[in-house]
Amino acid sequence: MSRRSSAPFAIGSAQVAYADRVLSVERSSMISYLPLWETAGAVADDLSHNGFDGASVGVTLGEPGIGDGRTSYGFDGANDYVNWYSAGLAAAFNGAEGTLGPIWLKFPAAAWTDGLFRTVVRLTVDGNNDIYIRKHGTNGLVQFVYAAGGVFENRSPSLGSPTSWFPVTMTWSKTGDVVNMYGIGGALLDSSTVLGTWSGALTLNASQIGAHSQAPIDVFSGNIQHVPLRNKALTAAQIAYLSKP
């Protein structure tokens, strides 16, 4: 059971306007939504009412956010992450139809040129059934991977090297036979088709925010805020609506 109360929604519309927007779009499809705006404690509260909270490890709380009046989580690039796994999340997760994002990111300039992979979010069963978004080792690229049944959709479009907040989103639909990747302003960055068939349940030690596994490896460097997960592929118009702070 989530320990989140309704208090954040009673402290002023300026502070919750963006979260309200996220929750207003396809609310019934929301599996979990971690805004990552806590300023104390180790629980990343789930605003979806499903109670699929995350557990933060090492992150710095209370850092500046996207401008919605709330704070973000800071990741040190070494050993910080948020464990998103729970049995409930694993049971609710739909590897065949879904949307991850928009997730808001902020990289320091040095992170773009460090030559390292930096994972934003990973949700995985195994190497053949795997979803993740991460900064590529090549300057300015962001990698989107959707693997189902050993069939890999792997794209690394260029985003330049922004040092201000920007969103990334990935949608997948076996029914529509397409994976779409979106960036700044909700612009479509790339698409991939001919999807495989997802199988299996999420893995305990590789379903997290800010690292590729809980070892941890490929640790994020910078800030993350607002991480929603849905069991439906949002439309381009919906993603554009949510890709503005």
Walk me through this protein's architecture:
There is one protein chain. It is built from four helices and 17 strands. By secondary structure, it is mainly beta. It has one domain: Sandwich (Jelly Rolls). The strands form two sheets. Strands 1, 4, 5, 7, 12, 13, 14, 16 and 17 form a nine-stranded antiparallel beta sheet that branches. It has an eight-stranded antiparallel beta sheet with strand order 2-3-6-15-8-9-10-11, with no helix packed on it. The longest helix has 12 residues. The N terminus is likely disordered.
Concise account of the structure shown:
By secondary structure, the chain is mainly beta.
Amino-to-carboxy terminus distance: 29 Å
Shape: globular
Low-confidence stretches: 1-15
Task: Classify the secondary structure makeup into a structural class.
Answer: mainly beta
Tally the helices. 4
Task: Just name the CATH architecture.
Answer: Sandwich
Order of helices and strands: HEEEEEEHEHEEEEEEEEEEH
Average pLDDT, rounded to a whole number, is: 93
Q: In percent, how helical is the residue content?
A: 10-25%
The whole-angstrom Rg is: 16 Å
Main sheet summary: 9 strands, antiparallel
For the record, the count of structural domains works out to 1
Please give the CATH class: Mainly Beta
Number of strands: 17
Beta fraction: 35-45%
The CATH topology corresponds to: Jelly Rolls
